[in-house]
Design a protein that fits this description.
Blueprint: E1 7-11, H1 18-31, E2 35-39, H2 43-49, E3 56-61, H3 70-82, E4 87-91, H4 94-98, H5 102-115, E5 120-124, H6 132-144, E6 149-151, H7 163-173, E7 178-182, H8 188-197, E8 201-204, H9 207-212
Parallel strand pairs: 1-2, 1-8, 2-3, 3-4, 4-5, 5-6, 6-7, 7-8
Amino acid sequence: MLSPKLFDHTILKADASEASVKKICDEAREYDFMSVCVNSFYTAYVAQQLKDSDVKVCSVIGFPLGQMSTAAKVAETEDVVANGADEVDMVLNVAALKDQKYDFVKEDIRSVKAACQGKLLKVILETCLLTKDEIVKACELSEEAGADYVKTSTGFSTGGATVENVALMRATVGDRLGVKASGGIRDTATAEAMVAAGASRIGASATISILSGIQL
């Protein structure tokens, strides 16, 4: 049985209207999900919608490409925290990782973590663009930089979460960090497989269908 608290109820599309975000917030309150995950523009609105509930506000940073400057990511993080974010999901600079600029990648994450002011930080690796060795390295750098979670995907690239990559991430971080599976998770069986592989959080827009056992 999947717990509602496994889920970040997510709405990140560019055309997401205020009405659609409100619907996501209402659903999150009804089902008692862990969080509502939105782009930074909606952070203050979601915080207002979720006040007096225990559903957290999760905002994405440097989304979806991760190639913003560190200063830009820090500024965005400071903004969402000021506007009520409880959790921050930042996108790794994939190109810098592939170029083996490991000190930069670590400092990029560390700088965002500092700007979180104690709020939970998840690092989105975009695993579909990485080799297995690069996934391991990204996990290691995220841990060294003080991140709380590693996350598979934005859901906006060439692929989403896979059981294999979730298992690799869990094997790398052990029980020291959380692992969030996101991207393409749309049914109960897939969500259960991700949890079995080591996911401790799931990001999905089809959250209610997943919990209801509806096949989309």
